[in-house]
Amino acid sequence: MTEPHSRSGTGPFQVSQLREEDRYELSDGHSVYCAPAGRDHASGNSTGSLVLGTDPAVKWSGVDAGCRIDDETLRAPDIVVGPPPEQDGWISGAPPLAVEYVGRGRMRSNSRTGFADLLAVGTRFVWDALFQ
Q: How far is Cα 86 from Cα 84, in angstroms, rounded to an integer?
């Protein structure tokens, strides 16, 4: 997949075209590149998932779990908390809680767009954690 040059209308891609090893999310059919995590980002994901996942009230949490919103939109927040997925593959729908770490050199607008996609279909809480 390549990054689109313009974002007018629905893009050419569908969630069914993505594999787990692809470094892309989709927003309305447009590819959104997801760079590998550096030291701080990876540490935040690991620590945050451990803290949230060990809460007795949490039934399931995951890191970089792909949430399929519709045929053209797949988002993978750094951490999701919600009910256990019903089947293998992408999680159907939006998690109740989504966490995204934004660090040096990362576009904060990308996480806000991802949160808007999730909030539009039922995510109740988002945590946009900024670290410098």
A: 6
